[in-house]
Amino acid sequence: MTEFANTQTVALFVNATTRQIQCDGLTKSISDDYWTKEISPVLYPLWDSDRDKLESFIFYKDETSKMLKNKYQRDHKTKAYKWVSYEFDTSQFTAVEIKGLYNTLHDKFINYRDIEDYNLDAKLKSIYAKDNMVNWNKLKMMRKFLLMDCDWTQAPDSPLSDEVKAQWVTYRQKLRDIPTEQKGVPAVEVKFPITPSKYAARVADGDTEEYLADTKHHYFYLNQAVLKKYTDRILTYLSISIAVDNIDALPVSRIFDSNTETNLDSILEQIAAGE
């Protein structure tokens, strides 16, 4: 039947056996659900029935057509019933009726193509969103890292002034309060406080507000760019720590490999797996 599917001459080719349709040089395998709900009602019972099944329908660009069917009939010699393939005579139908069948099947194909393309696009967007999503697990891990990253500020021998050390206390408490103060907030809308070091730079540039008093400029959102920045810091810290202290006897390559792209998801997966 492939001889009928020459794209130079064929406008529409329907293979009812394999449930494939070729139109405008594009071939689609139609899902069982769509075929049952949308294609079968067009074919049944005039063009396709339980005992006289449609095999293929070809509509040529010169508006001629050809139809192959498979009929369940009795062999007069053997007295046995069997399926017999034959070419169905479409001349008993008017050109308008045949063209109508073509138009309907063509529209069904276009509709299926559009649905399939939309579903594929939606799936790709979903995969992309999942891979790039800022979620609460990442936020909590980031929060723990930021707290650990500034533990030194509270050490008795810290070189910081009492005023700056107090700012770091406020900063650390703000980090701890994120899960309770911002409970129910979408992860992408969670605000993180800037560090006292960042605040000092703002004061040098003319910021007159007290530390964390400016809800717009003293906080930031953990978007993908920021997440990547801190992810790199976490990976670097872990790799250095493991290399120096051999924390938990984990090899460095398990956390950081300069030849591969590692992200927070993989770290979270290792933690969840007890690794």
Architecture overview:
The chain is α+β, with helices and mostly antiparallel strands. The protein has two domains: 2-131, no CATH class; 136-272, no CATH class. 45% of the residues lie in helices and 17% in strands. It has seven helices and eight strands. The chain has helices at residues 32-43, 95-131, 136-149, 162-181, 196-204, 224-245, 264-272; strands at 10-15, 20-23, 26-29, 52-60, 65-74, 81-88, 191-193, 219-221. Helix 1 (32-43) runs antiparallel to helix 2 and helix 3 runs antiparallel to helix 4 (162-181).
Structural class: alpha+beta
Distance between the termini: 57 Å
Strand content: 15-25%
Number of individual domains: 2
> What's the story with the biggest beta sheet?
6 strands, antiparallel
Helix count from the secondary structure assignment: 7
In N-to-C order, the SSE pattern is: EEEHEEEHHHEHEHH
Number of strands: 8
The helix content is 40-55%
Strand order of the largest sheet: 3-2-1-4-5-6
Unreliable spans are 249-262
Supply Rg. 34 Å
The coarse silhouette is rod-shaped
Average pLDDT metric:
82
What attributes characterize this protein structure?
275 residues; alpha+beta; 7 helices; single chain
How would you summarize this macromolecular structure in one to three sentences?
This protein is α+β, with helices and mostly antiparallel strands and 275 residues long.
